[in-house]
Amino acid sequence: MSNHYYNAKDLGKFSEIGRVNKDLGDKFFAYYGAVMAEGALTEREKALIALAVSHALKCPYCIDAYTTTSLQKGATEAEMSEAVHVASAMAAGITLVHSVQMNNKIDELSI
What is the pLDDT of residues 69-105, one digit of tens each? Predict the structure, then answer.
């Protein structure tokens, strides 16, 4: 086994997050299950959102899981790609809007 941070097989160990604190692990999974269930949004829509967030937050485990889930829920590759582009555009905009803080500091120091 090569020594690296990401091992796709570790995704199967996610259920072990409650190993030390079963109560909190169980509460997380109950919450997660409720959130991801069909509601005002379809499970397919939620899977696409999760896929986009997975990319924005750079979680390879989540990318694998939600690529699979999105396909299983009927999403197309084009829809999945577009969701990732939305997340990318949002991340870029969020980064760029913080330049207002930089501009404010420049203006403050220029006075």
Answer: 999 999 999 999 999 999 999 999 999 999 999 999 9
Structure-derived torsion over alpha carbons of residues 64, 66, 68, 69, reported in degrees to the nearest 10: 160
pTM of the model: 0.84
Measured distance CA(101)–CA(65) in Å, rounded: 37
Contacts of 15 (CB under 8 A, 6+ apart): 29
Cβ–Cβ under 8 Å, residues 47 and 75: yes
Sign of the dihedral through C-alpha 39, 41, 43, 49: negative
Structure confidence by residue, pLDDT tens digits, 28-51: 999 999 999 999 999 999 999 999
Picking from 103, 43, 34, 97, the residue whose alpha carbon sits closest to that of residue 73 is 43
